[in-house]
Specification:
The protein is α+β, with helices and mostly antiparallel strands and 95 residues long. It has a domain of 53 residues. It is built from four helices and three strands, in the order ααβββαα. A three-stranded antiparallel sheet has the order 2-1-3.
Length: 95
Amino acid sequence: MAKLEDLKKRNMRRNFAEGGLRKWVAEKWVDIGAPKKNGKYQPCGRSKGSKRKYPKCVPLAKATRMTKSQKASAVKRKRAAGNPGGKPTNVKTFA
């Protein structure tokens, strides 16, 4: 069991060494729930007091790989989960 934990830690360190978390944060995040008419996406998030529906944000690279039905499913699940508290609700992109 200890060997398995050591392996997981080593893999995690390797991912961070390759820029895993930094790369993830630096990606361009877009809202797949609000596509523009020209096929592009709005940036992730919304301003305070905005009447726009709750955003489902994913990296642009993932958004371009998703099918239309996958995007619709992810947005539907995100909006169904709602926002009961002050913090955002996380929902899996692929179910």
